[in-house]
Amino acid sequence: MTVTTIDPSLTMRDLLAAFPGARRALFVKYHIGGCSSCGFSPDETLAEVCARNENLPVDEAIAHILRSDEEDAKAQMTPPELAASLQEGAVKLLDIRTREEFEAACIEGAVLFTQELMQEITTRWDKGTRFVLADHDGSRSMDAVAYFAGHGFANVKALRGGIDAWSQEVDANVPRYELE
């Protein structure tokens, strides 16, 4: 089911739960929500945030969030799609979680993302290399995708739902965990 509208009275907490990329979308276009000077409270409504940010038209912000959500979906790979691509050897999987998280639970064939690997990717990898970035729940990997796309990598995606979704949809032997 595709959501085609957002209620302006929705709290930012609820908006971000339904549209995890909304913070990034609002920050990129309107400089809202990315730092302490332009932040918002989880209990503020979208309408309130727009009103105190130069009376930004709420309908315009909603349209932008929805467009950004559609673009985010194109930049993600589902766990079953990733499983098939890994089996075919058609993609590299980079895990951007901490070393502790990686050692506690990882997807077979994943490579832990390190500073050294980052240097290798940006200086030696072909810009057409197909790779997927995985985090815990899919919330941080989209920022990493945007970073690599901004550096000319055309075939980078994020694992939708992260390793947590992988554990639920593909391999229940990969332990699930909560971040504190």
What would you note in describing this structure?
This protein is an alpha/beta fold. It has two domains: 12-74, no CATH class; 76-169, Oxidized Rhodanese, domain 1 (3-Layer(aba) Sandwich). It has helices at 12-18, 22-30, 46-51, 58-74, 79-88, 99-104, 115-124, 141-150, 162-169; strands at residues 76-77, 92-95, 111-112, 131-134, 156-159. The mean pLDDT is 93. The chain is 46% helix and 9% strand. It is globular. Helix 2 packs across helix 4 (58-74).
What share of the residues does DSSP label as strand, in percent?
5-15%
Total number of domains:
2
Strand tally, please? Answer: 5
Give the strand order of the largest sheet, numbering strands 1, 2, ... along the chain: 1-5-4-2-3
Structural class: alpha/beta
What is the helix fraction of residues, given as a range?
40-55%
In CATH, the topology of the largest domain is named: Oxidized Rhodanese, domain 1
Runs with pLDDT <50, length 5+?
none
State the CATH superfamily name of the largest domain.
Rhodanese-like domain
CATH architecture of the largest domain: 3-Layer(aba) Sandwich
Could you say which overall geometry the principal axes of the C-alpha atoms support? globular
Q: What is the end-to-end distance?
A: 31 Å
| Mean pLDDT over the residues | 93
**Describe the biggest sheet?**
5 strands, parallel
**In the CATH hierarchy, what is the class of the largest domain?**
Alpha Beta
Return Rg in Å: 18 Å
Number of helices: 9
